[in-house]
Amino acid sequence: MIRFYFHPSPNPAKVALLLEKAGIAYELVPVDTSKGEQHLPAFRAINPNGKVPAIVDPEGPGGKATRVFDSNAILLYLAEKSGRFLGDPEYRPELLSWLFFVASGLGPFSGQAVHFERMAPELKYAVNRYRREAERHYEVLDSHLAGRRFIVADEYTIADMAAWGWIERARVVLSGSDDPLAAYPNIKAWFAGIDARPAAQRARTVGGDHPFKAINDEETRRALFRRIIPRTHEETARRWHTPSPRSPC
Asked: What mean pLDDT is predicted for residues 58-68?
């Protein structure tokens, strides 16, 4: 049985969707990132990068237990192992391209857009930079989905699952609108189709019975960012621009 290290956030949600859709048996292992559990040695042995999700497959290659970390790597690993949701081999280059589009673009820029808007709103340049890049990635995906039911060819694949995890949080990423997908009608139609599936509804409830910490206090900020988030622009400037004792400046 797969051990699935989980926190209720976009990247673990992608993996939850695949596990639920494929009917793969798994044991949920909560990792409360707001309490810093991702930094514990036991979890770092699973993911040296200290982030969720991660999995341990006791029946990995050669019948040996193996770890897999990074959400899109997990999607690819499980899809290859199960032989499902990879699409036609003819479209593998397209599948990989969109999978990495989410991994290197849509996901990170969406995450940073939320971070700076919530944690450092006084840094107007950073807030604007990441919000605009998040919107640009939405525009790229929206244009691609024109006249399409799915991201790759006409088949439901892990590319759709990867994007669903982040588009599901559009209301947070593109805050300020009651209908954040209104400007992206093709994404809106695609998302409605994916989200209506029973597996998506089940994925949304994964971990719902675990009391994950929901308070954003100093402990949370230290756990997530490894430092106290500066509360003023002056403090930010002081932390980033004060020369170190060894600096010749």
From this structure: 97
